[in-house]
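User: For my dataset I need records formatted as: sequence, then structure tokens, nothing else. Please produce one.
Assistant:
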Amino acid sequence: MAEHRRGANLPSIGGFNRTVVLDAVRRSPDGLSRVELASRTGLSAQTVSNVTRFLIEAGMIAESGTIVSGRGKPRTILRLEAASRYAVGVHVDPAVVTYVLLDLAGTVVASTTTSTPTADDPSEVVRTIATAIDGLVRDAEVDMDAVLGVGIASPGPIDVDAGVVLDPPFLPRWRDVPLRDALSEATGYPVLLEKDVTAAVVGEMFLAGESSARNFAFVYFGTGFGVGLAVDHEPVRGVGSNAGDAGHIMVDQGALAGTPDSAGTRGEVGAAVAPDRLVQIARDRGLPIDALSDVESVDRAWDGLAAAIDAGDPVAIGLAEDAGTVMGNAVVLIVNLLDIDRVVFGGPFWSRVASAALPAARAAIVESPLLVPKHPVVVDESDRGADVAAVGAACLVLDAALSPRASALLIRR
């Protein structure tokens, strides 16, 4: 039986109860009656009536038909008004900045990209991103007042308390960029800053709803390799909110070490599966891929590798399978450490090679002789596609606005 949030009836926590009710309606695509809401949330019938009246007046839910269930008065169904509120998600990647606009149900209604500006002039970074956000909202013909806020997913390390991007290894000119506060001032929206792998985890949980696994690892394959974690339905952020750097895990690199017979050669997984290295190996093995010159050229070369996989090229398929195996070998250590039962692969570079890499990664995990847990481990890929970090960033905003938290009930002095 699915678990449901439980509410409280104290008049001082009306805001919390609103999120309890809204969260329950959001998680029920077919809608809920007020009687069902009271049953699922633990709130009194009067509290549910007061809260739903507020949410209807705010335009966030709407009455949508009635159902007859046995004797008595037909029950009115309440459904989410997805187009009543929106959130913007921004993913800062060394190659491109991706922007998405999500409605209240978490559906992407608009998206765009810009080239990643250098951070020599932080004010230029803010202007570029703010202009793109304004254009995204305007072109979608969305009322700017209906936007709840902006979430930013950035490579780490970051300083979440200060809202600063510190010094990401693949963005050498991005050092101490005060992105959160400056962008909030430029756009007028509240802004949240999160590490990209953590944003992906939040998005996965928020959009999966009741079907979300309580404990899982999100293997993020972008310009870098990272692993976001959820434990007991909470993202693992760490002391400095920079958890997820898994690239230094030592694994057997197999054929990726340089030659097909190099099994037993060990190295760091992040270096072994780095996209620039993989496309160079593809070139060395005869694939017609352009030479690398910068981050953008790596992205274009990756498109070439993906096209070769789709065309059935055995060299390209073998390379993707080898990369999937190496990543899977690394993930086994994390599965053993946390005793989790689900692993999700995703990220901008993952989605383009997943058809070949995912089966290999799955086999490396579930068939590993080193695997300790005896329960089944589900290995699949995210439904969010290449924009998973941007979608996750927008979900940070939706989650902050819609998901009830017991911490909101604490008395603050």
